[in-house]
Amino acid sequence: MANSFDQFDTPAAPPKGNAFDQFDAPAKPSVALDVAKAAPIGLAKGAISLPGLPGDLQSMGNALVDRIMLGAGHKVMDWTGLGPQAELSQLPVRREW
Asked: What global pTM score does this model have?
């Protein structure tokens, strides 16, 4: 039955696709657009980390020297036989069940 408000009704549009289209992943942006968005953030992070660079290099150098000296020390102890050696009485004994 028609009434005076029928003139304001919009015609129903047919649904597009199916009901699960709303859950589809969004389209991937282009590589150029992705790089354009990430470049300023990467530059800012790089600029922020520059003041800490000398300390990082010093720590890396110290760790490298420690590693080299430890390796050289172990080689010397192995060659000379002066390194720590466990006596047979100090070795753990396996228990038989």
From this structure: 0.44
